């Protein structure tokens, strides 16, 4: 029997995260993501397989079993609730909450988890727009379309921003590129140049490392102006940032 230690939970959560963005899960990839040696990963993978939390998908790739995914979602739920709590209650920046939640998620009891959830009004998304898994029932981890594939001339509603890079979050947040914001997408400069967007009356050039972090959906309505909507507050509790953006756009 595998005891759900901090290390075990980190492995399950990391495997879930890699799978959700379509990246193959390999021992080398896990070693890179977790900052540990390949032999350590090999030993943990063997334990997770023996516990039937993990299985081979194809070739060298790994995937969570149904039980392993359920355990991973429990960790993800605690992490995202903590991020939301730290942002909404303690007013930490959306670029700060991820690291703090990483430290706290393993010690959070179910009782305190439920109290935080209730105190926040049962939020469905964290400050980065990531969906918070329910205690029970179906969870949809869909990322939506990345900004770097959005065509010129469209309006792009931001739904999620990856929290992997705190410096990138600070930069995007300063521009207002946060969940709920509507971007007017312009052309991308040739030879690897920036993708230009207009938001809240300001024009910004975003390089590929930034546009790949931003996910959302394209509006089908025609562009009628060269300004973005008022950006959402990334520190606010988001019960449904997309619905909020829709409400603001209709006003």
What's the layout of helices and strands?
Elements: H1 6-20, H2 27-34, H3 38-50, E1 54-58, E2 61-64, H4 66-88, H5 97-104, H6 110-119, E3 145-146, E4 155-161, H7 166-175, E5 182-188, E6 195-199, E7 202-206, H8 208-211, E8 214-219, H9 241-250
Antiparallel strand pairs: 1-2, 3-8, 4-5, 4-8, 5-6, 6-7
Helix pairs in contact: 1-4, 2-3, 4-5
Range of strand content: 15-25%
Please estimate the helix content.
40-55%
Which structural class should the secondary elements be placed in? alpha+beta
Shape: globular
Can you count the helices? 9
Number of strands: 8
The profile of the biggest β sheet is: 6 strands, antiparallel
Report the end-to-end length measured between terminal Cα atoms: 56 Å
Order of secondary-structure elements: HHHEEHHHEEHEEEHEH
User: What would you report as the Rg, rounded to the nearest angstrom?
Assistant: 19 Å
Low-confidence stretches: 225-232, 239-251
Q: Could you give the order of strands across the largest sheet?
A: 3-8-4-5-6-7
